[in-house]
Amino acid sequence: MCGGRTEATAKPxxxxxxGPTGEEQAGHAHIRGLTAWGTALPFEGQRIQVLGFTxxxxxxxxxxxxxxxxxxxQYTSLGSQxxxxxxxxxxxxxxxxxxxxxxxxxPSVAEGVKLGIxxxxxxxxxxxxxxxxxxxSLAIFGPVLDKxxxxxxxxxxxxxxxxxxxxxxxxxxHAIASAGVAFAVTxxxxxxxxxxxxxxxxxxxxPGEGWKWGGCSEDADFGVLVSREFADARxxxxxxxxAMNKHxxxxxxxxxxxxxxxxxxxxxxxxxxxxKTCWWAQPDFRAIGDFLKDxxxxxxxxxxxxxxxxxxxxxxxRAKYALFKPPTERDLVYYENSPNFCEPNPETGSFGTRDRTxxxxxxxxxxxxxxxxxxxxxxxxxxxxxxxxxxxxxxxxVSCQECVRIYDVHTCK
Length: 413
Fold this sequence. Notes:
Elements: E1 4-9, E2 13-15, H1 22-26, E3 28-31, E4 34-37, E5 40-43, E6 46-49, H2 93-101, H3 106-123, H4 152-155, H5 168-190, E7 212-213, H6 220-231, H7 240-258, E8 261-267, E9 275-281, H8 285-297, E10 300-309, E11 312-319, E12 333-334, E13 344-345, E14 350-351, H9 368-371, E15 377-393, E16 397-412
Parallel strand pairs: 7-9, 10-12
Antiparallel strand pairs: 1-16, 2-16, 3-4, 5-6, 8-9, 10-11, 13-14, 15-16
Helix pairs in contact: 3-5, 3-8, 5-6, 5-7, 5-8, 6-7
């Protein structure tokens, strides 16, 4: 993509709650036997109505309805400052109750959504749709929920139309954000940052040969419960979109549980491993992102069916192609085709690909031919300062020179 050459060298530098309402009880839809219910679940000795979000990246995707996680930059580091639940825009009443009842885990919830956004951007970094957030602010909770117009006071931008779309990009955002919340809450509990959760002591069982239980097993069940309580709040309507969103939320959370593994550490003189202790641990979140990206590529297309029940019309989803294997709880589902994302289109949330950096040597989707949608590309030179000729000195520091390299940068017209 870029070629570089050294131009100059500088001097070396050393580098040193309440119960469910009637409306909430009525809101459910099905996906081939999987039911999207707005019901209360037991949580820390109480019964709290299911709470939720519908996706991160405000207006960064072709599915703006999903992106209910927009929060101003003053909240992007929630762990370092007080959190006032009432000041967070876009929370529905159930989310607000959750926030007030469990204020100490809300920074972890926010961090999980940020983690999901960042992983989304990594997985789609070379695609036409690249999960870009508004102003790259990694905004996290928010109001972009319904068809119509988003308030400029809430987003700090001019009003933009936000119609609902149910594409596979929407499916991925739901899954990765829900997984991110479960992951971050689980990790935070294991680190002892909250008094209402801690290590897992329920899934140990007898130790294996040559090792014993030790350390702090991560309680993924608790993280998944928090994610489910907070992430499914809006999905209590008897329509296809709620069923799709809840299914994909759960697929993301299930991925966390499926990837739990034993992590062990040896103890003894000179690493002799005389004693080995093991505990349950989550994988690196990159493994979760890679797995869900594969699920995105193989997502199942559905069709919407309507039927009448005693409480009114209910929409359900059915696999579009009977010859294909029906989707499982671990698969992503969608029922609307994606746009090509070549041109800006506020109705689909597409920012287009103009001025995007492309790889002139690639024949894949990140190459200039495909990424630029046949419009061609511009080339410019760019100077970058980099550390070079680094030397390790005993003991113990590293000194480097600062080199200026010239790169060719290619951007879409």
